[in-house]
């Protein structure tokens, strides 16, 4: 049995998720999962670097430190698994995004977490740098997970919208008709802004279960200001990140609403995540929404999402056979397999690339 490891750390920069999986047709079997948190000092340095507060020396050092942690996550996963190392074909590592600038003459997407270190420490072939080939072909380099969604989550009986509530929210629209294209894009912020505001105001890295937001009320005037950002009306293909939606973005808007309580800002940010996702979804009477990502652990966020979409059915991806917390790392295990088998990993209609491309750089064992 061939197995694959996927490593993922998202825009929330809270840690690394590792998954060991095998693939059979359109079925995924999960053999093990493991997560590690970033040490707080490293997380703080990553946050600063993502806002351009780091020298080249610091960015180089962060690339090594995160590479070592990605390797540690993979090794810990292997140790707790009953799968033979010889059966692991490759590791797919997304890396840690520091900056994502998909437009302009010097467009780029920067992920750190040196894949060479992962390959060296684990002794397993590692695939990294998934975004740059798509960008070289004129694409946004993101989102890349829709190709995985299409392969494993397609249906010929219902239109499906996969909503990932990570640091940034993105959707993949998978029509039941084979004649209709799959589309996908980043809708805007999800957990990243809520986490950043919670950390700044309370010292806690995130609002556990949305409890703090539940103490507040939506400030409609502040919400209107937030929704006026041009990104939300921009047509796809489009992608974004913390270089756009960050703490300074929130604070700049809050300055115009000085009477708004901190918990009201948190509640408004949660509503922003819901509204921007719902407004940008295609409409279909046969649609079912399947949700994944860390946002599924926020009961208030899920409740507001379900109410905003009613009567459309909202469930998580466990209904499709994959735990909602492990969809993204599983996708990068599959993308590594695509690379090793010399198959495309992007959807050009999603990223805007000139066509399908084999993604990633291979670091042999």
From TrEMBL:
| Functional pathway | Cell wall biogenesis; peptidoglycan recycling; Amino-sugar metabolism; 1,6-anhydro-N-acetylmuramate degradation
Q: Per its record, how is this protein called by name?
A: Anhydro-N-acetylmuramic acid kinase
Catalytic activity, EC: 2.7.1.170
* Coiled-coil features, chain-numbered ranges: none
- Explain the purpose of this protein: Catalyzes the specific phosphorylation of 1,6-anhydro-N-acetylmuramic acid (anhMurNAc) with the simultaneous cleavage of the 1,6-anhydro ring, generating MurNAc-6-P. Is required for the utilization of anhMurNAc either imported from the medium or derived from its own cell wall murein, and thus plays a role in cell wall recycling.
Reactions listed under catalytic activity: 1,6-anhydro-N-acetyl-beta-muramate + ATP + H2O = N-acetyl-D-muramate 6-phosphate + ADP + H(+)
Q: One of this protein's GO BP terms?
A: peptidoglycan turnover
HAMAP family with a match to the protein in the record? AnhMurNAc_kinase
Q: Which domain of life is it from?
A: Bacteria
> What does the organism's lineage look like at the top?
Bacteria, Pseudomonadati, Pseudomonadota, Gammaproteobacteria, Pseudomonadales
- Give binding positions for ATP: 10-17
The record's family statement is:
Belongs to the anhydro-N-acetylmuramic acid kinase family.
Q: Keywords for this entry?
A: ATP-binding, Carbohydrate metabolism, Kinase, Nucleotide-binding, Transferase
The protein's GO terms of the molecular function aspect are:
ATP binding; kinase activity; phosphotransferase activity, alcohol group as acceptor
């Amino acid at each position: 049995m061939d197995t694959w490891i996927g490593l993922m750390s998202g825009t929330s920069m809270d840690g690394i998720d590792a998954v060991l999986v095998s693939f059979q047709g359109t079925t995924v079997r999960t053999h093990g999962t493991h997560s590690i948190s970033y040490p707080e000092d490293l997380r703080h340095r990553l946050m600063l670097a993502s806002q351009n507060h780091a020298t080249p020396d610091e960015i180089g050092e962060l690339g090594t430190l995160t590479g070592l942690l990605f390797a540690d996550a993979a090794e810990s996963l292997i140790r707790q698994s009953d799968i033979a190392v010889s059966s692991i074909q490759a590791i797919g590592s997304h890396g840690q995004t520091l900056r994502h600038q998909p437009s302009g003459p010097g467009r780029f997407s920067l992920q750190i977490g040196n894949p060479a270190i992962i390959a060296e420490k684990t002794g397993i072939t590692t695939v990294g740098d998934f975004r740059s080939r798509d960008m070289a072909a004129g694409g946004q380099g993101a989102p890349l997970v829709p190709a995985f969604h299409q392969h494993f989550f397609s249906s010929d009986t219902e239109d499906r919208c996969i909503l990932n509530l990570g640091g940034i929210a993105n959707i993949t629209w998978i029509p039941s008709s084979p004649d209709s294209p799959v589309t996908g894009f980043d809708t805007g912020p999800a957990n990243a802004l809520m986490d950043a505001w919670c950390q700044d105001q309370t010292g806690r890295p995130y609002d556990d279960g949305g409890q703090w937001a539940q103490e507040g009320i939506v400030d409609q005037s502040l919400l209107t200001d937030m929704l006026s950002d041009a990104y939300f009306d921009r047509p796809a293909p489009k992608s974004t990140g913390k270089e756009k939606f960050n703490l300074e973005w929130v604070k700049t808007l809050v300055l115009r609403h000085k009477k708004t309580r901190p918990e009201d800002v948190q509640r408004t940010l949660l509503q922003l995540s819901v509204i921007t996702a719902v407004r940008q979804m295609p409409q279909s009477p046969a649609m079912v929404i399947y949700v994944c990502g860390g946002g599924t652990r926020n009961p208030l966020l899920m409740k507001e999402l379900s109410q905003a979409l009613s009567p459309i059915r909202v469930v998580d991806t466990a209904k499709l056979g994959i735990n909602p917390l492990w969809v993204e790392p599983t996708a990068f295990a599959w993308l590594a397999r695509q690379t090793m088998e010399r198959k495309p990993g992007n959807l050009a209609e999603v990223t805007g690339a000139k066509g399908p491309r084999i993604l990633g750089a291979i670091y042999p064992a």
